[in-house]
Amino acid sequence: MKNPIEHLNKIFDSRIRLGIMSALMVNDEVSFNELKELLDITDGNLASHLKNLEENNCLKVQKSFVGRKTNTTYSATKVGEKAFKAHLDALEKMIKSIE
To answer: Per the database record, which ranges form the Winged helix DNA-binding domain (predicted)?
Structure first.
């Protein structure tokens, strides 16, 4: 029997990283506060998952100022998009293979 989880990407195992990448796949960029509100998680929790995705080259970070406040936005990299699509394909194949 073939291992049904062998092609799943461990980077996207967390439901939070899955949510972050889903948001970034359908938007050009998303701010830290938008992600925080969308996923309903704490600053620290979101920051640690964003750092993990950044270290794995799945997203890029842009920092700017809006007035005197910092504004940090995130967007998916080509590497991140490719890895996430491959992960979703693996999930779909796994689901279809289970009868």
So the answer is: 16-95
